[in-house]
Amino acid sequence: MLVKLGIIGGGVMGEALLSRLIARAAYQPGDILISDPMQQRREFLAKQYGVGVTGDNAKVAAATEVLLLAIKPQVFESVSAALPSPGQNGQIPVILSILAGVPLSKLERAFPGVPIVRSMPNTPATVGAGITAIAPGTQVQPEHLDRAKTVLQAVGDVVQVPESLMDAVTGLSGSGPAYVAIFIEALTDGGVRAGLPRPIAAQLALQTVLGTATLMQETQLHPAELKDRVTSPGGTTIAGVAQLEKAGFRSACIEAVQAATERSRQLGS
Ligand SMILES: NC(=O)C1=CN([C@@H]2O[C@H](COP(=O)(O)OP(=O)(O)OC[C@H]3O[C@@H](n4cnc5c(N)ncnc54)[C@H](O)[C@@H]3O)[C@@H](O)[C@H]2O)C=CC1
Ligand SMILES: O=C(O)[C@@H]1CCC=N1
């Protein structure tokens, strides 16, 4: 089997990228081989997407166009140490790493001479609404970057940043969907506390976040300007905003991004 796209690790993010790439016809299922040690997972991916599956990472390393690393950072050393040189018949793939924290220096030590792009996507990639930051390694030529971007653009927007900012990206957009989900859950609980039935509270909370994000994206309104427009003098919103400020909401968000950024740095060291 000639493997154009190889994916090592068929978990949440491996599947998110895989599913969108197939839906967008960026790759045919027959061009993709994905490895995972969990047999149940392999069977699911093969049945759901019609891709090739294996428990042997070495077979996936034979990919000729893109080799996507979608394993946890904690197993990177052992997985990379057991891999043969990527590619076959002189066709070397670009390695696309989505591993939190793992720096290009470490990736390039593990795969000498291979073009490597470090990236950080996020879970909205599953529905094509992700955002990914990328940082190219020293061996990356424009055509390698294009190949990596083609994969990542199938799941959302792509921005390029200096590698020194990748941990901060991980703390913000990589981890951010969890913060937003907690916010939506908390808004829902607030609605329930105020007497709303839970299903209606959940619908109101979700659409409020989605609608506000869409409004801000389409109008390019500054967040403070939008807040001012909602906040009537002596009205309801300022009463709520005052409570958020008293509870340290802004500070909690800033500290969350900072803590996740630091954790990303730790994972790579
Ligand atoms: N979940 C998220 O929101 C995001 C995760 N990431 C990064 O993506 C990577 C994967 O994360 P998830 O998909 O969330 O994790 P996951 O735990 O859902 O998937 C990891 C997969 O790797 C498999 N695996 C374990 N050992 C392996 C081995 N030796 N060889 C091959 N596969 C092996 C596991 O069975 C599992 O299916 C991580 O490095 C993480 O930092 C990046 C952006 C967002
Ligand atoms: O929590 C994590 O480590 C991964 C990286 C970004 C999102 N999830």
From the structure above, extract its key features.
2 domains, ProC C-terminal domain-like fold, alpha/beta, 269 residues, binds (2S)-3,4-dihydro-2H-pyrrole-2-carboxylic acid, 8 strands, Rossmann fold, binds 1,4-dihydronicotinamide adenine dinucleotide
Describe this structure in words.
This protein is 52% helix and 13% strand. It has 269 residues and is an alpha/beta fold. The chain has 2 domains: 5-162, 3-Layer(aba) Sandwich (Rossmann fold); 175-268, ProC C-terminal domain-like fold, CATH 1.10.3730.10. The chain has an 8-stranded mixed beta sheet with strand order 3-2-1-4-5-6-7-8, sandwiched between helices. Helix 7 (166-174) crosses helix 12 (249-268) and helix 8 (176-193) packs across helix 9. The chain is elongated, with a radius of gyration of 21 Å. The relative contact order is 0.10. The mean pLDDT is 96. The structure holds 1,4-dihydronicotinamide adenine dinucleotide and (2S)-3,4-dihydro-2H-pyrrole-2-carboxylic acid. Residues 100, 170, 174-175 line the site of (2S)-3,4-dihydro-2H-pyrrole-2-carboxylic acid (A1CAB).
Distance between the termini: 37 Å
Helix content: 40-55%
Count of helical regions: 12
Q: Give the total of beta strands.
A: 8
Oligomer: single chain
Number of domains: 2
CATH architecture of the largest domain: 3-Layer(aba) Sandwich
- What is the CATH level 1 assignment of the largest domain? Alpha Beta
Bound molecule types = 1,4-dihydronicotinamide adenine dinucleotide, (2S)-3,4-dihydro-2H-pyrrole-2-carboxylic acid
* CATH topology label of the largest domain: Rossmann fold
Biggest pleated sheet: 8 strands, mixed
Order of strands across the main sheet: 3-2-1-4-5-6-7-8
Integer average pLDDT:
96
